[in-house]
Amino acid sequence: MAPLSDSFQPFEYDTAIKVLADSSDLKAVPSKFKFVNEPTGLNSDSLPIIDFSALTANDPDQRSKAIHDVGKACQEWGFFILVNHGIPEFLMNSLATATREFFNLPETEKKQYEAKSASDPIKCGNFNVTNTSNQTFTLWRDYLKLYVHPEFHCPLKPPVLKEILLEYTKRIRELTRKLVEAVSENLELDQHYVDEVLKLDSSFQLFATNFYPPCPEPDKAIGLPPHTDPGLFTFLIHNGVAGLQIQHDGKWFNADSPQNSILVNVADQLQIFTNGRCKSVMHRAVVNDERERISMVVANGPSKEAIMGPAAPLVKKDGRAIYRPMKYIEYVEAQLVKSRVNGKPILEQMMIEEDDQVVN
Ligand SMILES: O=C(O)CCC(=O)C(=O)O
Ligand SMILES: [Fe+2]
């Protein structure tokens, strides 16, 4: 790891890591990427599985069981495997092919989207991180991040990407709405109240795709260090190569997905809104030495303008708010430049200690 210099920049478009991994038979991780970690995860057969079709079922018993299951998964794991979600498999496969085509474009084509600041609606490149001792390293991945709703931004190439993303992200917004309704119903929150606060019609949605080339020493580099996501729910699919791990009871678990399922995790604003009931799960992406991996991620937030604090009826029930409110877009952009690993996460910085309560 290199020491932190005054010119430290989280965003970078250097020799894209893909070129580096493609161009030679790389035997060791170059020093710039060095991050020593233990990438092994545990397997669990008790990861929650949610059957989406039961949530929309006409049978009230089936529906209320599904609502209860969603609530439980969000509170116990902050994570579940979504099946029978209704998104056609060919759409998910087309998205995987189109993102692969994007990463295969010539470097000059991709470099035009090099990120300059967190608020750029299209960002592409590599990401540098610092640890608490101010040493820096680069993540073992190339990424493309797009703001896709309420305004839609997308690179021009490959031309099919736009149409596929428009359709896929619209369907993900529909699923998000149903899941938010399920969580609200489970916590006995009034849907009108929830709609008014979250303004999901203009929900701020981010698409990210991550390309992780095979890595010669998977314990000396990391795709994405442990973090939580901004938003309400994050939806993740990948190209069939595992690598996502979630933290549960202090241990790392492999979050492998059955064919055609979607991995869903609770994100920070759902934890804040539910006054800590739902858990924004800590997760990371580890790399492997055999196969390239591509993940396609949609982070679904409330509206950019939503002031996100704990829901008033829950605060009343609990006697206090655990989090300070903050405008959603400000939270997202603070999170996007967050380039310190092992530092205090933003979510934690937003916590109100019990002694800090304002007494009226
Ligand atoms: O690629 C993965 O498995 C994790 C991606 C992720 O956590 C993210 O993009 O926020
Ligand atoms: Fe994430």
TrEMBL record:
<dbReference type="Pfam" id="PF14226">
    <property type="entry name" value="DIOX_N"/>
</dbReference>
<protein>
    <submittedName>
        <fullName>Iron/ascorbate family oxidoreductase</fullName>
        <ecNumber>1.14.11.9</ecNumber>
    </submittedName>
</protein>
<comment type="similarity">
    <text>Belongs to the iron/ascorbate-dependent oxidoreductase family.</text>
</comment>
<keyword id="KW-0408">Iron</keyword>
<dbReference type="InterPro" id="IPR044861">
    <property type="entry name" value="IPNS-like_FE2OG_OXY"/>
</dbReference>
<dbReference type="GO" id="GO:0046872">
    <property type="term" value="F:metal ion binding"/>
</dbReference>
<dbReference type="InterPro" id="IPR050295">
    <property type="entry name" value="Plant_2OG-oxidoreductases"/>
</dbReference>
<feature type="domain" description="Fe2OG dioxygenase">
    <location>
        <begin position="202"/>
        <end position="302"/>
    </location>
</feature>
<keyword id="KW-0560">Oxidoreductase</keyword>
<dbReference type="InterPro" id="IPR027443">
    <property type="entry name" value="IPNS-like_sf"/>
</dbReference>
<dbReference type="Pfam" id="PF03171">
    <property type="entry name" value="2OG-FeII_Oxy"/>
</dbReference>
<keyword id="KW-0479">Metal-binding</keyword>
<dbReference type="InterPro" id="IPR005123">
    <property type="entry name" value="Oxoglu/Fe-dep_dioxygenase_dom"/>
</dbReference>
<dbReference type="InterPro" id="IPR026992">
    <property type="entry name" value="DIOX_N"/>
</dbReference>
<dbReference type="GO" id="GO:0002238">
    <property type="term" value="P:response to molecule of fungal origin"/>
</dbReference>
<dbReference type="GO" id="GO:0009805">
    <property type="term" value="P:coumarin biosynthetic process"/>
</dbReference>
<dbReference type="GO" id="GO:0045486">
    <property type="term" value="F:flavanone 3-dioxygenase activity"/>
</dbReference>
